[in-house]
Specification:
The chain is of the alpha/beta class. It folds into two domains: 65 residues, Up-down Bundle (Transferase, Pyrimidine Nucleoside Phosphorylase, Chain A, domain 3), CATH 1.20.970.10; 258 residues, Nucleoside phosphorylase/phosphoribosyltransferase catalytic domain (Pyrimidine Nucleoside Phosphorylase, Chain A, domain 2, 3-Layer(aba) Sandwich), CATH 3.40.1030. The chain has 15 helices and seven strands. It has a five-stranded mixed β-sheet, with helices on both faces. The chain has a two-stranded parallel ribbon with strand order 2-3. Helix 2 crosses helix 4. 52% of the residues are buried.
C-alpha cells in the first residue's frame, strides 16, 4: 500500500482537483504497482464523479508516457485511431485509412488494441489480414520505414497499465484510463486524427495534447461514432498552431454522398478483413466513401491536403492506383516471422 497516495485520496474525497504534477505523481504510483486495488478504485471514481480535469488528464498521460516502450518514428508521422466505446460495430475505418495514408506517402504509427467494446478491433482485423501484430518491438522502426505504417499493439507498449486492470474491470464503468490510450502513442507522434466516443471529451483531449506538444490534431465525433461519418453532421475540435477551434463537416464537404451508419455495419474479424481487402482493391460503396472522408481529414492533419475535397481526391487515387493495397502487402511481408 502506498502511503503517498493517501493524502491525494483525502483531497479528492473532499472534491478538490489535482494539478498536473500531482496527477502525474498519483498515476505514477498506480503504474509502478505500489497502489492497492482499493486505492486505485477510489481515485478513479472520485475523479469520475467530480469530473476529470485537463491538468489531471495531462498528468496521467505524462505518467503513462514515461513508462511506455517507445518506438522511433519520423517527426512527421501521424496516428489515426479512436477511443472506442461507441458500441456501433462498424467496419474497421481507421485501419483502412492507415493503408490509404501509407500509400499516399504519409508515415502512420497506428496505436491500437484488440476488440474491447466492439466485435473487431484493429489488432483483430490485421491478424485476419495476415499481419503479425506481435512483431518484435525493435523491428518496428524498420517496418515503419519499409511499409510507411506499423501497428503499435497497446498492451505491449503499456505494460504498466496491468496494475490498474483488475480495479477497472471490477468498477465496470468508464474511468480516466479509457481516455489515455489515444493520448499516449508510443511513437510520440505530434499529429493525429482521433475519434472520440463522447463529444464532451473532444476539447479536453485536444487541450491535453496541446499541453503535451502536439502540433496538429483533429478530434472527431460523427453521429454517435468515434469516426467521421457520411450519415450527417460531424463535430470537429482541431488543434493547430497552439490554437483550438471547433467546427462541423459533412460528407458533402468532401464531395461524397451521404449514407446511413447501417451501411458500414461490420462483423467478425474475417468479415471485416474481407471488406477491407475489397475496398483496397477498388470496391465502391459506403465503406469506401467513409474511408475517403476520414483519410481526407487525416491528410489535412498530415499537411498533405488543403481541404477535404482535395484530401478525398488524393485518397481515391491512392486506392485506385493500387498504392494502398501495396502498403498492406508490404506490412504483411515486413512483419512476417523469418522461416
Amino acid at each position: 500500500m502506498s502511503n503517498n497516495l493517501k493524502p491525494v485520496l483525502a483531497r479528492l474525497a473532499a472534491g478538490e482537483r489535482l494539478d498536473e504534477a500531482e496527477a502525474e505523481g498519483a498515476f505514477d504510483i498506480i503504474m509502478s504497482g505500489e497502489a492497492t486495488p482499493a486505492q486505485i478504485g477510489g481515485l478513479l471514481m472520485a475523479m469520475r464523479v467530480r469530473g476529470e480535469t485537463v491538468p489531471e488528464l495531462t498528468g496521467a498521460v505524462r505518467a503513462m508516457r514515461a513508462r511506455m516502450s517507445a518506438v522511433a518514428a519520423p517527426p512527421d508521422a501521424i496516428d489515426v485511431c479512436g477511443t472506442g466505446g461507441d458500441g456501433a460495430g462498424t467496419l474497421n475505418i481507421s485501419t483502412a485509412v492507415t493503408f490509404v495514408l501509407a500509400g499516399a506517402g504519409v508515415t502512420v504509427a497506428k496505436h491500437g488494441n484488440r476488440a474491447l467494446s466492439s466485435r473487431t478491433g484493429g489488432a483483430d482485423v490485421l491478424t485476419a489480414l495476415g499481419v503479425n501484430v506481435d512483431v518484435k518491438l525493435d523491428r518496428l522502426p524498420a517496418v515503419l520505414r519499409a511499409a510507411r505504417c506499423a501497428f503499435l499493439f497497446a498492451p505491449r507498449h503499456h505494460a504498466a497499465l496491468r496494475h490498474a486492470a483488475g480495479p477497472r474491470v471490477e468498477l465496470g464503468t468508464r474511468t480516466l484510463f479509457n481516455l489515455l490510450g489515444p493520448l499516449a502513442n508510443p511513437a510520440r507522434v505530434t499529429r493525429q486524427l482521433t475519434g472520440v466516443f463522447d463529444p464532451a471529451w473532444m476539447r479536453p483531449m485536444a487541450e491535453t495534447l496541446g499541453r503535451l506538444g502536439s502540433t496538429h490534431v483533429w478530434m472527431v465525433h460523427g453521429q454517435g461514432l468515434d469516426e467521421l461519418t457520411l450519415a450527417g453532421e460531424n463535430r470537429v475540435v482541431a488543434l493547430e498552431g497552439g490554437a483550438i477551434r471547433e467546427f462541423a463537416v459533412t460528407a458533402e464537404d468532401a464531395g461524397l454522398p451521404r449514407a446511413p451508419v447501417e451501411a458500414i455495419k461490420g462483423g467478425d474479424a474475417a468479415l471485416n478483413a474481407a471488406a477491407l481487402t475489397a475496398l483496397l482493391r477498388g470496391e465502391a460503396g459506403a465503406y469506401r466513401d467513409t474511408v475517403l472522408l476520414n483519410a481526407a481529414a487525416a491528410l489535412i492533419v498530415a499537411g498533405r491536403a488543403g481541404d477535404l475535397r482535395e484530401g478525398a481526391r488524393i485518397a481515391a487515387a491512392t486506392i485506385d492506383g493500387g498504392a494502398a493495397l501495396s502498403a498492406l502487402e508490404t506490412l504483411r511481408r515486413e512483419t512476417a516471422e523469418p522461416a
